[in-house]
Amino acid sequence: MQYKKSIMANTKWKYLVLSFLIIGVSFQTNAKGKTVSNTTAITSAKDDSLVILYKAISNIETDKERRKANEAFTKALIHYSHKDLFNAPFDTLRKTISILDAPDNSFRLITWTVYYLKGVYDFYGFILYKQNDSIVSYTLTDNSAKMLKPEELTTTNADWYGALYYKIIKSGTTEDPYYVLLGWDGNDLFTNRKIIDALWFDENYLPNFGKPVFQFKNDDLRQRVIFEFAETASMEVRYEAKYNMIVFDHLSPDKPEKEGHRDNYGSDFSFDALKYDDFKWTLIEDIDIRNAKTKLTNKRKNK
Question: Are 24 and 46 in contact, with CB atoms under 8 Å apart?
């Protein structure tokens, strides 16, 4: 019976891919035989088909077949030209995966995740970068599982610390910009993570992740920031544009003896922030979120 279910699931997503390709062909011409813009096609039936393909992954009963289904979704997505992927609104797909446009419209960042039954999340994505008069695509390859000290590393798109991003914040200068990314990582069965990363493009227009711009202590300058907390807990990391601050819950263990065991960490209902100033983001501890301009006395140190 299990084998039969696997065959049915396998057939289902292959049918969905075939349906998608048929829709793709049908939208290339109109009733009079004239060519129709790919971008226009993406906004309608193609957009819906991509959503169906992606949602079908979570209904497949083996990790092997989920990987195959994700490959099918990826192929369907990159079926479009780079220009179309950069410009299409994806009104429906945006509700299912992450599609973020840079504040200066210099790139589009597409990320999504697949949950595997062994209890881990893998992340996938693309950067569509505007280079002169063309659009260049960079595939993101999640290598976070092999990183021993990720907060100390600068990486490329080929060894990306995978995350599902939900915010892009432009930083730096006009001549030397970088982009702070806020993201989520489901990690494993016991903990979740929130990620603050930095994306920048070098002189060859190649994407890099991680930049020493997150100042926590005098000797603690990080390339990226990773918060890990219990699966049963929640943590908010948000950007307050009015004050140019990234505000986040302070994490602590539920019992003193659990210090260092991240699967026992959660919010203690106090808040810290990273304040942007002089090209970098500097830690401000124990802020009053009702008055984000004010730095309060660090009460935790005085306890």
Answer: yes
Across 12-33, average pLDDT:
44
Tokens 């808040």 correspond to what residue? 271
> pLDDT by residue (tens digit) across 43-80?
567 788 899 999 999 999 999 999 999 999 999 999 88
Rounded Cα distance between 124 and 54, Å, is 12
Spans of all domains in the chain: 1-89
Secondary structure element (H or E) that encloses residue 109, with its range: strand 107-116
Query: Which position has the token pair 């279910």?
Result: 5
Closest CA to 288 of 234, 222, 255, 243: 243
Residues 6+ away with beta carbon under 8 Å from 176: none
* Cα dist from 185 to 31, 98, 163, 279, whole Å: 46, 13, 5, 26
Q: Is the Cβ–Cβ distance between 90 and 143 less than 8 Å?
A: no
- The answer to whether the CB of 268 falls within 8 A of the CB of 285 is no
- pTM beyond cutoff 0.90: no
Quick one: pLDDT band at residue 275, thresholds 50, 70, 90?
very high
Record the tokens describing residue 140, joined without a space: 């993101």
| Per-position b or e across 166-198, b if 16+ CB within 10 A of its CB | bebbebbeeeebbbbbbbbbbbeeebbbbbbbb
Asked whether 50 and 76 are in contact (CB, 8 A), the reply is: yes
Q: Which amino acid is at 41?
A: A
DSSP-derived 3-state class of residue 197 = strand
Determine the pLDDT at residue 43: 55
Contact 49, 26 (CB under 8 A): no
Cβ atoms within 10 Å of 69's Cβ, excluding its own: 25
Q: How far is CA 284 from CA 164, 256, 265, in A?
A: 26, 24, 20
Mean pLDDT of 293-297: 45
> CB–CB of 168/183 below 8 Å?
no
Helix (H, G, I), strand (E, B) or coil at 1: coil
Q: Are the beta carbons of 166 and 182 closer than 8 angstroms?
A: yes
